User: Fold these one by one.
Assistant:
Number 1:
Amino acid sequence: MIAAGYATRLGELTKNFPKPLLKVGNNTILDRLLDDIDQIEDIDEHVVVTNHKFAPIFEKWACERMALQDKNKKPIRIIDDGTSTNETRLGAVRDLLLAISGNPDGCASDSVNKQTAIDDDILVIAADNILNFSFQGFVDYAKDKQSSVIMCHQEPELKKLQRTGVIAVDKDMKVLEMQEKPEKPVSNWAVPPFYIYNKKDIPLILDCMNHGCGFDAPGNLAHYLVGQTTIYAWPMPGTRFDIGSLDSYKEAQRVYGGE
């Protein structure tokens, strides 16, 4: 889970509190995601990368979640990326690299925070989305392809395509090209911030910063890897609600608050 942003567009609401832990209805944004992922047998733990400012809040949340008596709940590790301001943020790709390689500077005083390197397939999610479908199909697709995969959806609006990742695919949904915020999109396949990276591609990921990979947005890594390895795309079977502003948070409360 990438959760190290400062959500400056939400103003006072997230000045001293992390956006993924805001409540929508009776549950937080992040808990809604994890409640689904906890049902997927192939997932064995959650790793949440956050910043130094919000790390204590996430640590408290993780301990409280793990204290609930539910046999399906997976262990949670919190990684503190050491930054304290939006201006000094590492960016999503660098935060992901911390999660994969282990964070030698993080707190290791208890089981929630103990840091170890990851050597397995990984599901990468931006922690500020609400979905009306399960990640189970996405995981099953990655297992079937035995490859790294990214999610995609049809986006008819040019302006929205120009603000996101866009892919070109063949008839088998193998990714041929990925653009980042293109002026002239190659297709209407937009890429939301959900990815599964195959274990065999971990060395490529760990070396990506040495080859000019962008680091601010999570899509930068997928954009880089398309030229380095085989990646397939999975069409999103439902809708997602991206909570990026105060207005979108209020709309999420209206749409999902009764659930």
Number 2:
Amino acid sequence: MSLPLKVRRLGRQPYAATWEAMSDFTNNRGPDTPDELWLLEHDPVFTQGQAGKAEHVLAPGDIPVVQVDRGGQVTYHGPGQIVGYPLIDLRRAGVSVRELVNKLEQSIIDTLAHWNIGAERLEGAPGVYVAGAKVAALGLRVRRGCSFHGLAFNVSMDLEPYHRINPCGYKGLAVTQVLDLGGPSRLADVEDALVEEFCRQFGFDAEQAAPILPELPARAAV
């Protein structure tokens, strides 16, 4: 039987408020809280993961750099990029952290296949690549068996800010996007395919939820 998944298409959102909302959601969810997938764009921001090293931020200029509690190094978020936050109870879904990463990557690979774009993984470098250029990055956190943070999938954006960092800690890593690979420029088109493939990978049954950041009542301290 498929598990329900609430899909929230949130439009453009500031980073800090969204980070706080998904952290609160994870802290306050209970065993019966439905899993969610948030899809959105962020205002321009560099985020530096827990393993991030300052030397990988080369020249941020007017774009803020935010230290965050996900895994991984530095990456860029901006308009024209799909950011996906899978808020999943991994135990209920029967998924390990390794499988979570694998299934997220496969969801993106299968999404790109809708437009005959051949994509792949690279050993030891999480994310999705086309001809050696990175089209999607992953950065995750698991708390009390539940995932938050997630994926960044370049669709139709200004790629210049990637030259201001070593993307994901790799000097000179080439970065690409769906539009330049012959796919669509509309985020909604790519989101539709991504939701379909995400649900196929995880065995979810998607339902559209209100396009607002949800609030759960705070859990009592145990």
Number 3:
Amino acid sequence: MRLTPTNTFAGNPLDRAGDRRDDPDWLAAQAADPRAQAMLLWEGRPLIEDHPDGPRLVWLPMDHARDLVPDREAFLGLWKAAPVFAVEIEGSVDPADGPVRGLGVFHEMRAAAALLPGAEAAMAGAAKSLFDWRRRHGFCAACGRASRDACGGWKRVCEACGTEHFPRVDPVVIMLAVHDGPQGPRCLLGRQSAWPAGRMSALAGFLEPGETIEEACAREIAEESGLTVTAVRYHSSQPWPFPSQLMIGLVCTVDSDQARPDQTELEAVAWLSRDEARACLAGTHPIKPPPPIAIARTLIQAWADGFDVAR
């Protein structure tokens, strides 16, 4: 099986060293390694520099990064045996106007993902998810007491009751519904009112407890469009660090083309033929497609290129 990543934020090249990062002495040795380097984030935004080959993450020696921000780091893994960390700066004042002036510019993560090489976007996305989780889980969910960072940022421990907390990932099904009727095969796109004018995308929703991926796909399609799913095929997945989701990309067939937007999640729907989907992706159709970093665009492209649920 090929593991070639097809989606933005996939393809993290690091060895996460999950079997070693729970050892405080080992982690301390990694941070002290002269090869150790760290990316910088400010409130979830990575620091990016101009480079002859295009925008790149700014990497600082670990000791320099710690001088800027002590006690606010996460161990990301090993790159060819060299330790890689992330350090986050907090506060409302842009550090690019102060302590890191001249090193680069902090970009919002969606914009950064569109600029960076795939591997760097994946590493930055993982760092953002870790810091977001840590920010939201400073207190133990079991007893309410303060928890402390452990395992290089991959665990929090409550010293009052001993409960260990680990980063959570929220699974989301995102599916392109298709129907083959008298007008030929067409795919269904939906629109949320908050999106930019003309933007439409695949339907999506969170998995619920006790639900399979296929069941979640069918429920979300029924809730948002009133259609019945008859078959489901997996395409690919995408880590989505806003704040920490796993997008499970599917293509599904539905029983009819009589879609009815629920007016809660969706305000409008549209059916596109393969030619219309190609025009949408090319920017020559009135409907605007999802942005290039979104797995929804990958699904539309795959279907336009012939991806078939029955195969």
Number 4:
Amino acid sequence: MKILITGTAGFIGFHLANYLIQRGDEVVGLDSINDYYDVNLKYDRLANAGIAKEFIEYNKVVRSATHANYSFIRLQLEDKENLEKLFAAQQFDKVCNLAAQAGVRYSLTNPDVYVNSNIVGFVNILECCRHHGIKHLAYASSSSVYGLNGKTPFATSDNVDHPISLYAASKKSNELMAHTYSHLFKIPTTGLRFFTVYGPWGRPDMALFLFTKAILEDQPIQVFNNGNMARDFTYIDDIVEGVVRVIDNPPAGTDSWDAVHPDPSTSTAPYKVYNIGNNNPVRLMDFIEAIEQHIGKKAEKQLMPMQPGDVAATCADVQDLVKNLHYQPNTKVQEGIRRFVDWYRAYYRK
């Protein structure tokens, strides 16, 4: 297949691109390389896949020096004209849209960025898929869409009409827009609600990265909601496995779908939404303890109140992904943290 993966300078996109390259697919990566966090980490991810920083220019396709089946273009999803030209020139079979403005707390102070990237940019992706015969669009949603939902584990059949951050609202908007295009234009679309992804090459704004950095530098860590938090931490390799299974299996629509009692995760249209998580929430204090064990040093903890936009606990019901696509996450948190700490020490040693 020839696959466009947006967000390949990002955490999940980087790992997904490497997996599909190794599998033998032809991959074109796209990223705006914005400065939401350290751009050097983004450039180093690209360099790891053979895309050297000095050859990257805006709207220029660069071929990898190490993988004949991988190319990259720096481009913004909001740039509709050049995005359209890319689709016309490359003739992709499938698209995996992972590019987005990430972060719950950042959306409280920078709302315009989320509207431009996550909503305007996503409409542009949908339009390009519509006009260029894309066989399947898989795209990143988020566990944040569950918002005020107090029922756990979170199931894709649950109502998600009460988001508590603009980031979450933008992701729910993506799901709604995708369904519209699936219904009107028969484009197979699959939304992926990610649950707290972690691992090597991860994002510096995520808890594991922040905690590891602070502990190694003898700095205090901020523990929100006084530590009374739980997250469905999911290791990056398990996430990539799930995403690849989704890409390979576009939805066909559900003939038995009940319009009187509608399941929001399915439709008569070729549309599906999946949770991708571990279905095994970990207490934040246990997560911190595992980091301390692998670093060999105790953290100085500053207990803080709950932050606006945060939820106390997340847990993914992944039964439909297991049933339909035989998804089976199997990386224990202790092992995943060990791999991250080893990567962090090696990466920053340079």
